[in-house]
Design brief:
Layout lengths: L6 E6 L19 E2 L2 E2 H11 L4 E6 L3 H8 L3 H9 L3 H9 L5 E5 L6 H6 L2 H4 L4 E4 L3 E3 L8 H12 L2 E7 L9 E10 L2 E9 L10 E9 L3 H6 L11 H11 L2 E5 L4 E3 L3 H12 L6 H22 L1
Parallel strand pairs: 1-4, 1-6, 4-5, 8-12
Antiparallel strand pairs: 2-3, 6-11, 7-13, 8-11, 9-10, 10-12
Helix pairs in contact: 3-4
The protein binds uridine 5'-triphosphate.
């Protein structure tokens, strides 16, 4: 019998080495995009997709993530006294969510982080949303997670989100070998390969940070040997799953932002800032001026 998708897992226990030293004591999932921590966007996407319970897999910087979603009586009282109810609303929005936390004692890889959710998930299909990957930050009525849930409702199968990336970048991703052209963006898959060399990559369709998985993935993860980078790779377990039950790939057509990467983080902040009511005008004028200054500097140098 088909089961409803009610649970989400957010792995947020990685070391964030691409963002050192900022991530030495701060989880990269807490890096703010203008005024909102990255992980709050992820939680909001899960909620907008109908998810009821979320498990955050945390590591060394557990406390700031837990504190962010906890109610903060002192702050709320203080804001109320000062009549700053607008700010209070923002604070309130991050409370009252059924969030659970578990610790991954050693960052052995994404596959190992997902394995920590075995007891929480039980025998149900579930979604995984990577804590540093944002999709369409400026709002859409149809989040990618919701799309994956709809795919599951139609196929009863695991579905992994993918999108095309430049060929020279495939070695930073898991990549799929699709079977044929796909139907309305949904592909059957021959193999899932983690971090292939560009010359070995079966396509340029890279796995991005949203997965819908059936619970059979856990038995595979329990026996999964370390793969690329000597980490327990979720992609390798998905490839094994695909040998016993169908696993589909859903092509994402929207904008994706890799917040765990320095330049990706800057782009995300600028784009979100250009849509934020308190910053959009100033930021737009600033960028226009910056463009003019850079232009005249280049002309002088020529
Ligand atoms: P990344 O590979 O982007 O995270 O994993 P990382 O290892 O922290 O990054 P770098 O390369 O060192 O900068 C994708 C997601 O999986 C989580 C990360 O927190 C991130 O949200 N993750 C990764 C875990 O929870 N545990 C792990 O062992 C590895």
């Amino acid at each position: 019998m088909k089961k409803q998708v009610r649970k989400a897992v957010i792995p947020a226990a990685g070391l964030g080495t691409r963002f050192l030293p900022a991530t030495k004591a701060l989880a990269k999932e807490m890096l703010p995009i203008v005024d909102k921590p990255t992980i709050q966007f992820i939680v909001e996407e899960a909620l907008a997709s109908g998810i009821e319970d979320i498990l955050v897999v945390t590591g060394k910087s557990k406390r700031s993530i837990e504190d962010h979603f906890d109610s903060n009586f002192e702050l709320e009282h203080n804001l109320k006294e000062k009549g700053k109810t607008e700010l209070l609303k923002l604070v309130d929005e991050s409370t009252g969510i059924r969030l659970h936390f578990i610790r991954q004692s050693h960052p052995r890889g994404l596959g190992d982080a997902v394995l920590q959710a075995k007891a929480f998930v039980g025998n149900e299909p579930f979604v995984v949303l990577l804590g540093d990957d944002l999709m369409d930050i400026n709002g859409t009525n149809h989040p990618l997670t919701k799309q994956l849930i709809e795919d599951y409702e139609a196929t009863h199968a695991s579905t992994i989100a993918v999108m095309p990336v430049p060929h020279e970048e495939v070695s930073s991703y898991g990549v799929i070998a699709p079977q044929g052209e796909g139907v309305n963006g949904l592909y059957s898959v021959d193999t899932f390969v983690e971090k292939p060399k560009p010359e070995d990559a079966p396509s340029d369709l890279a796995i991005i940070g949203r997965y819908l998985l059936t619970p059979e993935i856990f038995a595979i993860l329990e026996n999964q040997k370390p793969g690329a980078g000597n980490e327990i790779q979720l992609t390798d377990a998905i490839d094994t799953l695909n040998k016993t039950q169908r696993v589909f790939a859903r092509e994402f057509k929207g904008n994706r932002y890799d917040v765990g990467d320095k330049f990706g983080y800057m782009k995300t902040s600028i784009e979100y800032g250009l849509n934020h009511p308190q910053t959009k005008d100033d930021l737009k004028n600033y960028i226009i001026q910056l463009g003019k200054d850079l232009d005249s500097k280049t002309k002088k140098a020529d």
